[in-house]
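Folding Task

Wanted — backbone structure
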Amino acid sequence: MSEAAETRAGPPEPSLEDLMAPTRQPFDLDEALRAKVDALGLGGTIRSLKEEGYGYVHEVAEPGIEIRVRETLLGLCAEGEGVRSVGSAGANMLLDKDPIIAEVVLNPKLLAVVEVMCGKGAMISQVAASVKPEGGAAAGLHADQNWTPAPFPVHNQLVTFCWATDAYDKANGSTKVVPKSHLLARHPTMEEIREEPGAIATECPAGTAVVWGGSIWHGSYPRSAPGERVVLHVTYSRLALRPVECYDHLGEDWLADKPYEMRVLLGREDFLNTTEGAFGGGAEPLMRTFAWAKT
């Protein structure tokens, strides 16, 4: 077998015993995954995710890479790469825009946490940048599983990493979290969104990734400090969140004489799995999806 073929080779085929094994419960790691977590020094991260709903991945990669990531993100946003996000500076659909983005997505520490939180075969869901200048606005509390009705499943559906390219704290506009809110397995109420009970600021040095599961309530603080908060957001999801058949080849011509319901059935009226990313169609399909998911 050539070196290239070996690189492309996947894991061995599962045995019948593997297929019939009982479902592992959250944070019940098999020996191989436990060894990987320990070898990468991620034990504290996983404990925090289990108990608090969020954590930190320290020293994600070699020192200085956060400077390259920051410069890349600022350059991509300035060049208009990706799709501008709603209500803030930034861009999404960035996976193929620069080699360093794919390098981050494939980072061994991140992928180990992804397997713990979303199981084997997890998919990349979103790769986006956000740039928050001095005076930049806050973001309200929400759970990332916004297209999952409550009560949330026992098994986590999404995991998000915010790779901080500069110091992360409240004055700099860091992510706010409500520790242990993931245990409620629901979305925050309007009163909770207004009052933000128990919310705290995440704090970490540049080069650290803040990570949280899909159920925890989080948002962000406004930036009062000079300068810009530049963050790479990477979200992964469980493999089950896909249809069996793909009809992306059916264009607007085919849909022209079809009822609106056909557009809905083909996913053309929600914001998921779109070629322009979450914000390509503006706020309407995003909010529509969140509302539909709660019915």
Summary: The first strand starts at residue 54 and ends at 57. The chain is about 30% helix and 20% strand.
